């Protein structure tokens, strides 16, 4: 009877205008060939994220969907939101 713990990429989804990459990582506990438990962890990556420590599958998806146009549009969006926030704080 061997109990093992393994981490798997359960799901990779691309959503939204700026191609957010959502990743579900499954932690699976197995005894012999029978699954005893499964827990999920989720995280999202935006086009300005450092993906060097991500799983190779996640990196491949990010590199495929985060074109330079997507990265530029997201950077513009962030800059505009920051400017709005600063303007709102200046009015107070």
Order of helices and strands: EEEHH
> Structural class of the secondary elements?
alpha+beta
How far from one another are the termini? 66 Å
Question: Radius of gyration, Cα only, in angstroms?
Answer: 19 Å
What spatial form do the alpha-carbon principal axes imply? elongated
Largest sheet: 3 strands, antiparallel
Percentage of residues in DSSP E strands: 35-45%
Count up the helices.
2
Please list the strands of the largest sheet in the order they lie side by side: 1-2-3
Provide the helix percentage.
25-40%
Q: Which spans have pLDDT < 50 for at least 5 consecutive residues?
A: none
Number of strands: 3
In round numbers, the mean pLDDT is: 95
Which features does this protein show?
92 residues; alpha+beta; 2 helices; elongated
Care to give the gist of this entry?
Helices cover 37% and strands 40% of the residues.
What report would you give on this structure?
- By secondary structure, the chain is α+β, with helices and mostly antiparallel strands.
- The protein has helices spanning 56-65, 68-91, and strands at residues 3-15, 20-31, 34-45.
- It has a 3-stranded antiparallel beta sheet with strand order 1-2-3.
- Strand 1 and strand 2 form a beta hairpin.
Topology:
Elements: E1 3-15, E2 20-31, E3 34-45, H1 56-65, H2 68-91
Antiparallel strand pairs: 1-2, 2-3
């Amino acid at each position: 009877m061997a109990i093992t713990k393994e981490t798997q990429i359960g799901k990779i989804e691309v959503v939204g205008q700026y191609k957010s990459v959502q990743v579900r990582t499954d932690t699976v506990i197995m005894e012999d060939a029978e699954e005893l438990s499964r827990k999920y962890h989720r995280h999202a990556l935006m086009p300005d994220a450092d993906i060097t420590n991500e799983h190779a599958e996640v990196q491949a998806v990010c590199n495929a969907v985060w074109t330079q146009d997507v990265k530029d549009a997201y950077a513009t969006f962030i800059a505009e939101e920051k400017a709005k926030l600063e303007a709102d704080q200046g009015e107070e």
